[in-house]
Amino acid sequence: MKIKPVVKGLLTFIPGMQSILPSTGTGGTNSAYWCYGIWLKHLTLLWENGTHTIPNTIAELGPGDSIGTGLAAMLCGANNYYAMDVVKHSNIETNLVIFDELIELIKSRAKRPTKGWPDIDKYYDDTLFPSHILTDELLEETLSEKRISAIRNAIKNPEYQNEGVTIKYMVPWSADNTIEEETVDVILSHSVLQEIAELEGAYRALYLWLKPNGMMTHQIDFGAQYFADTWNGHRAYPEFLWTIIKGRRPYLINRQPPSVHVDFLKKNKFKITCLLKSYREDGIPRSKLSAYWRNITDDDFTCDGAVIQAKKQVPGAE
Ligand SMILES: C[S@@+](CC[C@H](N)C(=O)[O-])C[C@H]1O[C@@H](n2cnc3c(N)ncnc32)[C@H](O)[C@@H]1O
Predict the structure, then answer these.
(1) Whose CA is nearest to atom 12 of ligand 1?
(2) Ligand 1, closest atom to CA 63?
(3) Contact call for residues 268 and 218 (beta carbons, < 8 A)
(4) Tens digit of pLDDT per residue, the chain (318 long)?
(5) Count of structural domains within the chain
(6) Which of 205, 216, 253, 270 is deepest in the core (most CB within 10 A)?
(7) Could you tell me which of 23, 172, 178, 24 has the C-alpha nearest to residue 86?
(8) What is the CATH number of the domain that holds 217?
(9) Is residue 318 domain-resident?
(10) Which residues constitute the domain of residue 72?
(11) Radius of gyration for the chain, computed over Cα atoms and rounded to the nearest angstrom
């Protein structure tokens, strides 16, 4: 256990303190290459698991420092993009810089960034680009000057609706009024679901927003981040201490293991089409977990990451 997160949590109870505590950014989407890599990975895995169209409408939870992942999707053909966060991490200036870099990356069919996890290189071509999905024919259309200019205008102006492209950055979003029901083709999140406080409400909202047969793709990081020195040390804090660490922060890791996500998917009648998990054997032993977490299953205890893709089933379908 570390003392710094407890002190920071306590400080957030002091009125006005939250706004002056240093913000370190969200770590990733301030790089166009990172955003490009996220989009290529989720898109390629969706393709492998049966989705063979570029989504017309895409929603992203927790875009972070920029909306670059959604912009990459738009440059590959998506026309409407909803970005939902709880803190306004991104701004128009950063998004425009990232956008210009993304155009070059996609135009040059740049290879995917570092291999990372999961390793999906076998699905890319020899140049480590998904040319079976992002064909020359498709990109010629999606990267036309007219489209690029329309997307750029939509980044600058949230009300922009010309040329059939829209971008809505919703901060903070709320489950009830964010997106019209059954209007979204794909929902994506990358390293976000481990931070959503109200997972049950979020999964319900995701279900409502998706069109029938719509898809979700999420990568989840179950590690302790900077809350402990070991990857699983976040589950050592007893509940009262965790409440102090949470303080009045706008969000914090929720410490929920993979089985909880799978249960919510099943409860909402999603069909899981892809479930990849990574495991670690190091970290603190089970005996050092707090009483609340000590009896989690072996799978939950050792799983440090997952990619989950799921389809909203049409009622009556298997
Ligand atoms: C670790 S960052 C990941 C950012 C980005 N997706 C990436 O891959 O770099 C987590 C993001 O989730 C956001 N977040 C936390 N709780 C959220 C919620 N309930 N709804 C939407 N976003 C949330 C945070 O504000 C932050 O932008």
Answers:
(1) 62
(2) 6
(3) no
(4) 788 877 777 777 777 766 666 666 777 899 999 999 999 999 999 999 989 999 999 999 999 999 999 999 999 999 999 999 999 999 999 999 999 999 999 999 999 998 889 999 999 999 999 999 999 999 999 999 999 999 999 999 877 777 789 999 999 998 766 799 999 999 999 999 999 999 999 999 999 999 999 999 999 999 999 899 999 999 999 999 999 888 888 888 999 999 999 999 999 999 999 999 999 999 999 999 999 999 999 999 999 999 999 999 877 765
(5) 1
(6) 216
(7) 172
(8) 3.40.50.150
(9) no
(10) 4-21+31-312
(11) 20
Report yes or no on 92 lying in a domain.
Answer: yes
Question: Which tokens in the block code for residue 153?
Answer: 């205008």
**Residue ranges around ligand 1 (CB below 6 Å):** 26-29, 38, 61-64, 84-87, 89, 190-192, 195-196, 251
Token readout for 151 is 């997307």
The closest alpha carbon to 186, from 275, 83, 77, 54, belongs to 54
26 occurs within a structural domain? no
- Beta strands 80-84; 166-170: pairing state: parallel
Identify which of 34, 192, 200, 252 to mutate to test ligand 1's pocket (most ligand atoms within 8 A of the CB): 192
| Helix/strand/coil for 265 | helix
The DSSP 8-state label assigned to residue 114 in this structure reads S
Is residue 171 in a domain?
Answer: yes
